[in-house]
Amino acid sequence: MASSTARRRHRWLPPILAAVTLAHQPSATTTATTIDEALLTDLLTQYETHAPTECTVASSLDSNTTTTFTFIYPGLKSESEWNPDVEGFEENLFQAMMSHVDDTNGERSWEIRIGTGGNIYSATAHGMEIASPQKLGYAPWIDEVDQIVSVNKQLNGNPGADPNSNFGNACDAASDPYECNTPYYIHQAGAYTRESPYTDAEPFYSPSLARHCAHNYCMFASWGTQAHIPNPFKSSLMYITKFTNCGDGIIEHTQMIHNFADPLTSESLVVDQDYFNVGWSGVRSSNLPFALEPTNDVLTIGSAADVRDVDYLPLCRWNQDFRGGPAGRAEIKNLDTLGGYTTFVGEGLIVNREYQLTTACRKAGASCNLDVTGCMVESCTDADIADGYVRIPLGVRASSGPNCAFHNQANPHGGYVALKCDFRLTSGFGRTRPYTTGTDPCAPWKDARIGFYNTLTGAMLEVSFVRHWSFSASNFLVYFSTFIKDTGTTSQTEAIDMVNNMFAAGSSNFDIELRSVNMSPVKPWCRKPTGCLTGPSVSDPDCMVSSCTETMIENGYTRIALGVPPEGPDCQFYNTTDPYQGLVSLQCNLRTTTGFGFTDVNEDRPIRFYNTITGKMVEVAFVKHWSLYGDDRRVYFSVFRADDGVDGVNRNLAINEVNEIFANDFTSTIPIEIRSPSETGSDVSPSYDPAPLPAFTYVYGKGEEYDTSGGDVSGWSRRRIGSTVDTRDYTVFTINWLGTAKLRAGETYVNRGFKFSSDLGSVQATASNLNTKIYIDEIALEQWTPRKIDIYQDSSKVVAVAATSAGGDSTTCPALSSPVCSGKSTPQFGLDPFFHVECGSESYLGPNPYHFNPLDYCILVKTNSASASDGHVAVYVNANDGAGYIKVSQGQDDYYATNEVVVDQCYADLAGVKIQAVNSNAWVGTVKVSQDHKMTYSSLPCVDCGGENNAVGSIVVDNDFTDSSAAPTQCLQKTCTLPFRPFCVLVKTRGMAYSDGCMDVLIDSGNGYVPFSVPGAEHQKNDVVVDQCFSDLRSVQVFATTTNAWIGDIQVSTDGKLTYNALTCDNCSGTTSSASPIFVDGDGGSVSGVSTYCIDGKTCTLTYRHPPCLLVQTSNIRYSDGYVALYVDSGDGYVLASDPGRKYGRNEVVVDQCFADLRGVRVTNTNRDGWIGEIKGSIDGKATYSALACDDCGSPTSSASPIVVDGDNTAPSSVSTYCIDGTNGNACTLTFGPFCVLAQTSNIRYSDGYVAIYVDSGDGYVLVSDPGRKYAKNQVVVDRCYTNLLSVKVANTNSDAWAGDIQVSKDYGATYSAMKCDNCSGTTSSASPIFVDGDGGSVSGVSTYCIDGKTCTLTYRHPPCLLVQTSNIRYSDGYVALYVDSGDGYVLASDPGRKYGRNEVVVDQCFADLRGVRVTNTNRDGWIGEIKGSIDGKATYSALACDDCGSPTSSASPIVVDGDNTA
Hints:
- By secondary structure, this protein is mainly beta.
- It is built from nine helices and 104 strands.
- A hairpin with a 2-residue loop joins β8 and β9.
- The strands form 21 sheets. Strands 8, 9, 11, 12, 14, 16, 38, 41 and 42 form a nine-stranded antiparallel sheet that branches. Strands 10-7-6-13-40-39-15 form a seven-stranded antiparallel sheet, with no helix packed on it.
- The protein is 5% helix and 34% strand.
């Protein structure tokens, strides 16, 4: 447990856990329970803003005494009826069971089962399972459970965005799109079982970290799992949950998310989370088919008097809840627009929803021939049709008939025969995907089949599924499934013939209407697998159950089947002692078989018995018994006729009507279906009362805690809901935290809500009370008050001991002497969480939960397969373990054949690779790294190779130059370094007097500034403050928070820590800008030996500038090979850099080198064998190159890419830049500077003409054009680059005017912008374009004029830039409204409704003009930050001044902007 060598920070025992295993076995330590209790209790309570539990017992029963829990798996629960294919996994999933039995009200009893992730995977109430049956085969208790889910939106589906991961960069999207678009979802439950064979035996459930149950609560902590595997992403999330029994069926559910990534070293892009499910949940649709939410805080549930007045939610297919879509009240809604809770209700609720299924529509004016997918909408209104939308007309054309054919699908719905038939009257419609199983796709509780009604014959085809109303604009096909099971060719032919006959073509076109075939939710009872006692008048009640699921039927249960036997119904009066509401009671032979026992049904919901042969129906008011005796087929029921006694007209009519409707003239049984009556409400029983119906409710509040509603928590929250009943028997329900939501490294989010079981009538009162007890908060690192945790160790055991009380600072362990490591029970700055992990017989205690993972960084070095690739090479690897570079290639004599693997090895960490030529037998191959366990590879950059510095393709390694063209990247006559993370920052305190002090370091590696030192910490002499490597490095910021000054070196390495260079301070004081050394202090001061100062509490910015690199390479054209003498001035005068006596071959590199400075290049050739090549420079680490400019070549152009260098005065016509006549001593000077001037004639009429252009690059104006030459249209007049640029002058003494563009680049020609004319006439000052004439004149399309022979001055000005950034001090985060006047009045430039976090940039923008900035804040949550401006291309900034603040100072760096009068 020693201190880290990279940073002076001890890695303490946890903030989070100790002595818990990933294998879910009990800990070997004797104090594990105490540790778990201490850790969980402190995490859930010991922070500044903690609100005590609101869980009070409302009933007379104490919830403490009615709560039971166990950690022993109790076996399968019969009510759960899990998918048999996955139920065997439950035992490994199980962690705890918690239950409450309410003796006074059984509707409020419940049992929950908690998985290893600390989430509910099973909840039973009302004698039924609430959770999904787990039909999703690849997600057994992974998806359809109650859990937290966190997402990094930038990395989700975009693994290549991770700067530290090359996953996705080399993937093949065509062959494996999943790999290239890996999702990023951290599940509380576990990972999908998609990685065979690793997940075949059992799923990977999230590891349990701690658990503790006592009194009326249970607490859990787990390590969140990346759900989609294989996956390059890691997880730095802990999920902490607490379930408290509040009595009366109420469960208080606390959810906590802690991001345990190190805030000092982690990259925000990689570890920040910004989208959440808190939580993701749902219910089993078959048990709780309805969802209700209150309107204006009142929950209306309907009554016998008015069943239309129900606050139900349409449950459309999941993901159809978009705003303005079909979901209506169930569309995505923010919590501040809802009533704070959603309740799910069991069968029996009557919802009279009016909905008419229609076909899809083509958009107004759309052509589906041009856009087959975008031309359609799934539905449209009458108003849409009036505006030109066209609804698909169903029907059969007389000319063709239906022409049905089998539709071969990969996943046919329900196993039914799928057909495609010509059921559209017109073509021209695009692709639609209704994917609907019923006539009301947003009311899955209705068993309403789709009917295709033949308007010519009255025939009705019942359809099980509609896949496409249309698919192609060129045909008439509708794609659907029948109710005939697909058993092969015979069944397919049967279905085709049936539909073709039912819709045979007539003499003219006829329509097909969509009709609803309403099936009743009422179902007959079921017989148990054991069977019933049978015989004359034997009535066996024990063999029957009131309901059975499909799973139960698969396991031997048998549902009573209704039908008319061949002998007919034989209806008779049923003389019951309790006739239903005085109606006629009958007993009829309406069951297909005997052998069922006594059923005491008493079902009073109106239904219809439907004759499937004739289509006739009997309206049934009441079912007394589905079966009574085991030896008959009688069903006992009442019809809607008042009983008028023996020989009464009504009684006889009832008997005769039913006998007639179900007369059987066939030799086989006629099936009877149970259907719903019309939904007008007229058939509702007078005794109907929905209040006693079973309900399960989620209470989540109204979002008042989020900053969009005036709270303190960033972002906002919404509710989503949708159905998957047709495939998974699940209604998805989730609460999202999103918007500006952000969980950064070290931060914690807590959300306390409620769940409860009750009858429907009690929901409103209970939920409204709980709504006031919601608690949501964000917890920063400094808010915790932990207790001490110590680790004791001897030769046989490791014991973790917690202080006995919250906030305690001492521990004792009598059996062991003194602790070997100490830590805290909650997150703290500078402390890492420690994990105890067991894997087989091995164990680990430390900060890396991935310790037993396969090694993360795998190097693959391999010879190419092409001939002549074989050769000699030596490979060295630095595994960042302190051993430096170690040779890892083991080939005999370092020789490797074609296609041979040189190195294939994995490491826990990786600093870089070195390759070295052994002899002149060149080796050609690839050097790659994998960070996803060898799934994908990408190349490493080479910092000192020739050619392409990023070895994307191959690299050639040779001891001479003979094979330099064998690969685009060349390592010739040297040892080349390929660093893994090329930018390594080293911040170290000096050992001199007074150097130890306080200083904060922030580093921007591409995702904004992140702190990399403990804020306000004092650094001792020779202390390493930061030693960290990055994929990118933008800049470093330092500042002092005290007057205790710090002195040290701030350096960067770009070659795998081999060498370091000082960073440069852009805004320091002193006589130098080098940050090695640098003096940082909170007040003024100085010290001998240091000349760079960051004082007075100033925040100083340090940057790394790539050194200028020169690439000189021979061209590949004919006659390009030749001689060249090349001299480089890197600050000490011109030094020869090439071999003048060597003839350089085609494509041969002459110079490929970087310099501390690059002031100029000179070229000459005293040989008459000329050389042609490219002379280019780079300032971005060889990522891009731009041509050097020849100042004195005297050729038509100045670009040295390409350039001819020859000893005589000849040059090929194909190259327009040349330096010739070298035999007479001529040499040419080439400059490499960021400022490039480009002047080009326009293409407009009269633009060709004369112009004189002068450039002042620091030594006065030099003529760079030919004033006596008439420049043609589009001709380049000037194209030159300079190390400095002061201004440009233009003039024309000729009356033949010139018009063109004069532009400047400050990035070596990468981008250009117009120069500004200081003294031109016209309406604009832009020199792009500009009109230059010796007399007066003008031309259409140009508004800047330099005329009458005038000499005009053009300048380049950096535009003014504004930087507004939140400070990093406490309470600096807040709201600010910022307005900018850039010449057109004040315009809002910030989001006044957004709470800006610490260090967050509010505005970073440049403007054509910057006349003023206004700030205000109407929110009482004040903002503190810096408002600064730059006029030198963001090189330096200075504070803006506040003219009317009324404060003691006017500097806006920093400034407080608040809605009240506090500062």
